[in-house]
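@here heads up, posting the sequence + SMILES for the S-adenosylmethionine run so it's all in one place. Ping me if the SMILES looks off, I pulled it from an old spreadsheet.
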Amino acid sequence: MSFDVSGDAYDRFMGRYSRELAPVFADFCGIAPGQSVLDVGCGSGVLTEELANRLGAEHVAGVDPSPLLEACAARVPGADLREGVAEELPWPDDAFDGALAQLVVHFMDDPSAGVAEMARVVRPGGVVAACSWDFAGGMQLLRAFWEAARAVKPDASREASFGTLEELGELWDAQGLEELELGALEVATAYSDFDEIWSSLQLGVGPSGQYLVSLEPEAQEAIREEYHRRLGEPAGSFELTARSWAARGRVPS
Ligand SMILES: C[S@@+](CC[C@H](N)C(=O)[O-])C[C@H]1O[C@@H](n2cnc3c(N)ncnc32)[C@H](O)[C@@H]1O
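bot reply: prediction finished. Complex structure tokens:
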């Protein structure tokens, strides 16, 4: 499993982006005091923590199938955290004012079922929302990695994705969610040097990290050189940007 890793490893690789994205996504979803919200695919709890800061941990729930849930429990004591998947949420109908999935929809085995479940556990008029990286153009860390991987290993698989905003919008539309809003959420993160980003990939987190550590050392080294070149051969600190597509809708009243 791509997320059978420690919370620290996740945070060093992807959590650094999630941390920047969480407040922007929560704003996009209109999360404000008085609501109770479910974080679907909460992972190490970066968005869960943002929700708890806004709503109080007792008004926040999270669900994830991976061991990252332990890191989430440590990060957000008092939240209702359960092991499970989006496609079969362990809560009754209308349990929340909102359900959010940050960087999760493309990992669901059945995204339609997952979004339908999110809508089921949200009360009429509540918000159902997700954001997913723009893998094709707007996520430098991953795009440059897979380009470098394919330059060395032409058969390197692509990361599964909801590649376009339209695809994400169609998924929301198909569930009959109302007041559909689509948007682009942009964040950035800084690295002190190239070794910092490369060592975060070597932690084996997510499809890219898993792919990298599955390769023999010579191939890893060739990808490292190609990746360095594609990132503009940074000599010292540098910044990467990441754009995600976001969709938000309301459960029909
Ligand atoms: C890229 S991480 C995002 C974690 C967190 N939402 C964040 O923003 O940092 C993807 C997460 O989705 C979880 N996941 C994978 N399949 C899932 C499913 N079917 N339902 C819910 N979560 C799932 C993984 O375990 C992982 O924690």
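MO: The pocket of S-adenosylmethionine is lined by residues 3, 14-15, 18, 40-43, 46-47, 64-66, 68, 85-87, 102-104, 107-109 (CB under 6 Å).
MO: One more: The radius of gyration is 18 Å.
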